[in-house]
Amino acid sequence: MDLISSTFKFSNQAIGVRTNNNIMSISYLRYLRTAQDILKQIEATQTEAIAQASDICAETIAEEGLVYLFGSGHSRMAVEEMFPRYGSFPGFFPMVELAVTYHNQVVGCNGQRQALFLENISGYAEVILRNFTFGSHDCMIVFSNSGTNILPVEMAMGAKEQGLPVIGVSSIAHSRSSTSKHASGKRLFEIADLTIDNCNPPGDAVVDIPNLAYPVGPTSSIGTLSIVNAIKCRVAELLTARGKPPVVLTGSHFIGSEESAKQIERSYDDYKARVQGR
Question: Which of 100, 137, 145, 260 could be cross-linked to 220 through a Cys-Cys bond (beta carbons 3.0 to 4.6 Å apart)?
Fold first, then answer.
């Protein structure tokens, strides 16, 4: 009862703040409103691009190809959001290079300085791509909020040289206001065959705090992960309509513990069959 009363009291306080027109003075409410605005912008402007990307991915998976996923830095979250996790399915191949994504060390061995350095070394993408054998039906999605770092730019370039359709997910506003670090001067959205804008504002920090010199509260992950799951849902719909329903990783909440364990094994076996020999 105390928790319920406390929650109700908090809700009333929030309403009171809103009624008094002081909402913009509350940092967490400003963040939540900005995040909602970004999702609304994606819905208003990016649904056609999301649909096109879903068509490409569904065609790839239906033809036993792989949708390769790459992101460095915090963009690796989008890669792992697509697969493997509950509610996802095989056909997507996560490419996660620990050297540029292993952030929890921060300093010392595997530190952030090394990761930031490697992300802008030309030729690194070529070394990564040499480890893979790409098929005629494969495609790639490259995630980069800024779209300006050398590694994701060269991953997109290298994939196109291999004949893969490339989908970029990036902040167009941030990219347009930034200079590419690649020698070509090109940014991800200028290389990809299709780009989905995550509608994140430049700088990737959206809340100004009085007396704090720098803004806080990044939103790029909110937009990008929403795009990822929108694509995932549409691809599942398209594959099912083709008579090739995906083997979805499904939790025990829906099918019970025993069947969930079996479904996880079926999904992993499906994934193994798809990547075997690559």
Answer: 145
Question: Does residue 10 fall inside a structural domain?
Answer: no
Does some domain include residue 229? yes
Please answer whether residues 34 and 206 qualify as being in contact, where contact means their C-beta atoms are separated by less than 8 angstroms: yes
Q: How far apart are CA 169 and CA 19, in angstroms?
A: 38
Contact 219, 203 (CB under 8 A): no
**Length of the chain in terms of residues written:** 278
CATH number of the domain at 182, please.
3.40.50.10490
Residue whose C-alpha is closest to residue 29's, from 18, 16, 40: 18
Residue 205, judged by CB atoms within 10 A of its CB (0-12, 13-18, 19+), counts as middle
Provide the 3-class DSSP secondary structure of residue 194.
strand
Over its length of 278 residues, how does the chain's per-residue pLDDT go in tens digits? 444 333 334 333 433 334 345 545 799 999 999 999 999 999 999 999 999 999 999 999 999 999 999 999 999 999 999 999 999 999 999 999 998 988 788 898 888 899 889 998 999 999 999 999 999 999 999 999 999 999 999 999 999 999 999 999 999 999 999 999 999 999 999 999 999 999 999 999 999 999 999 999 999 999 999 999 999 999 999 999 999 999 999 999 999 999 999 999 999 999 999 998 77
Question: What 3-state DSSP class applies to 201?
Answer: coil
101 phi-psi bin (left φ>0, alpha ψ -120 to 50, beta other): alpha
Distance CA 180, CA 237 (A): 37
User: Distance between CA atoms of 144 and 6, rounded to whole angstroms?
Assistant: 41
Provide the number of structural domains found in the chain.
Answer: 1
